[in-house]
């Protein structure tokens, strides 16, 4: 959750308050794209790089930074990735292309490239990879999209799909024929995208192999991302659509993994690396990423189970029982197990002369019942609450004035009840100022590389992980361990620590 100045009082209204859950979590009546997240100052190389960008590229670059938490400034990681890119470029079909890499300060597992050669990789993806070959496979895949001009080709394909849509709307009078034409258009676009992914895989694996990386890194990392995605769904219900992971636009399927293995076989026989060679590659990579921030960015606050803490803004709250929280650049999102309830916490500026009761009925959300609007006090802070009703969802809203800004709790329930209202109020009552001692104690999580000792088991090392649940599964995903795999004494592994 970003600093207050990223938010604006909404200039438009939520349509009918009966929005779908995903739209509620994504938008919840906030204004347009946020400004670039006010992280720590960018390092001089990043400033120089931005100064050299054409205006259109710079605007897109800034939008990406805003959506993914800004730049993650780690010279050691930057140097390692830049070296990887240079090796890949030298082995590519177009060694004259220039790529500029930006590490994004986001826990999501993602990487992408702009047609201009801007490459982006998140620290979450870097943390998930187990060796440089896995990381190189992702970067080479994105280079493959650039080399094959996929962005331009996809734009042309989307224009064709849009043309079909307009023709159907304006010309076709037969509803069944129109629906069939639209369906065929969508299937063609989906098939085109899948074909692009396979082509980028083939190009990327070839580049990585010629650059001296293990071509099987692509299949390993596709598998790791799939397992991470499954684990994320178990932990949070995948409630962060604001910063989608790699798999949302680069779907991993058994067929894709199998195809990646088939392509890798063209360059190298399987299982030719010895256990010692694999361990060396892993150890070298882990040494580079040791200490990388894991999970939420320190400047955006922390999720700890059902509790959210923001040391920089100085507040905390605890979600109702059964909720999973997810922290995004624009808001804190929550979903109750089963999907029948959700919450959103964000922050807006409301003029001091405007009462909070008046703000709740000012039009930023529709269908507010005036009879439910009344003032409240939350731990000494002035507030107001109200109820809004939609077709499928009912909303209990709280606005709390905290310092110079107003924090909005928006609770959504498919079936609002007195018990749900009580739980929502109990959650809001946990909103309070953090003490100095709590602020000093709250630290970001990091990856720590440890050596497996004799007698260490997956369960034993997982118990040292500073995670709230699924510690064993998280340990296996982080370290690329198959179910039932044993640890080898003397090997290096990743754990999550405070």
SSE diagram, text form:
Blueprint: H1 21-26, H2 44-51, H3 55-67, H4 75-91, E1 100-104, E2 111-113, E3 118-122, H5 123-128, H6 132-147, H7 150-170, H8 175-210, H9 217-236, H10 246-249, H11 254-265, H12 275-289, E4 293-294, E5 302-304, E6 307-310, E7 315-318, E8 323-327, E9 332-336, E10 341-348, H13 356-360, E11 374-378, E12 381-389, E13 394-402, E14 405-413, H14 418-428, E15 432-433, H15 436-441, E16 445-451, H16 458-462, H17 471-478, E17 492-497
Parallel strand pairs: 1-3
Antiparallel strand pairs: 2-3, 4-16, 5-6, 6-7, 7-15, 8-9, 9-10, 10-14, 11-12, 12-13, 13-14, 16-17
Helix pairs in contact: 4-6, 6-8, 6-9, 7-8, 8-11, 9-11, 9-17
Concise overview:
The chain is built from 17 helices and 17 strands. It has 498 residues and is of the alpha+beta class. The chain has 3 domains: 4-21 and 25-29 and 297-440, Mog1/PsbP, alpha/beta/alpha sandwich (Protein Transport Mog1p, Chain A); 40-273, no CATH class; 444-497, LysM domain (Membrane-bound Lytic Murein Transglycosylase D, Chain A, Roll), CATH 3.10.350.
